[in-house]
């Protein structure tokens, strides 16, 4: 497994494991499945693991921490997120979480980018992970909270980074415009861009990626399957895109890309994993998985050799810029 070292931040394996599914995203996952997924990732050479309190109201962090327990701490990188505090909610404990995770709603999420909120959130994450430090901390989806996130949020993370409590800081979002603004105006190291630099989404090429290169900020690409549309060799009619049913025109475009891939002996998901890593600003691609089989499948896709002619053909047909 190759690694890339950003100008600011730890070296990351080109493939990372996203642990949202460890939090019972959409359906239940067992402790054993999560453990097996981490074991498979380790066997494949993956050493970057991403989680968040939001994922299963802390369940993802607990399972990831348990699965990594006993591993040499200096051999792997963990990122988590702040900005969504977990607050006890006994009045909803008898129902399931309404955030997409199949877990009891014993706590609720509250947006909080204050210094106190970030410190308490990180303290809770460290306890659930069973770690005394995390390597990367991202502000989590601060789309509607620019004012607080770009001041007390970033300032608190800078303070923690300067004290050596955390290694690198940034934000994780599903849009490129505000990530570019963070890079222009704030002291950040790494940014997680979800779903906005993929075979179907190229807007980040215009400003964000050149700016990241100029400022020495690494980009971690997540959501490269665009919620599943690019995750199968041929897009299904009921495929999802950005967590919603994919519109027919996007299904048609993805199908056209798949047909070109087939001419070169690779699959659409193979190309989806490889495409972001072609850009020098991208330091890792994070793929979610809930089982060893999914981790191994992702690793096989990452290991597929993509002929240069494929990218030329996609550009010539107007499917890539």
Automatic annotation (TrEMBL):
Q: Which GO terms describe its molecular function?
A: oxidoreductase activity
Q: Return the protein name.
A: Aldo/keto reductase
Instruction: Provide the Gene Ontology terms for cellular component.
Output: cytosol
Which is one Pfam family of this protein?
Aldo_ket_red
What superkingdom heads the lineage? Bacteria
InterPro entries given in the database record: AKR, FDH-like, NAD(P)_OxRdtase_dom_sf, NADP_OxRdtase_dom
Ranges for domain NADP-dependent oxidoreductase come to: 14-314
Give the organism, scientific name. Answer: Galbitalea soli
- Identify the Gene3D superfamilies for this entry: NADP-dependent oxidoreductase domain
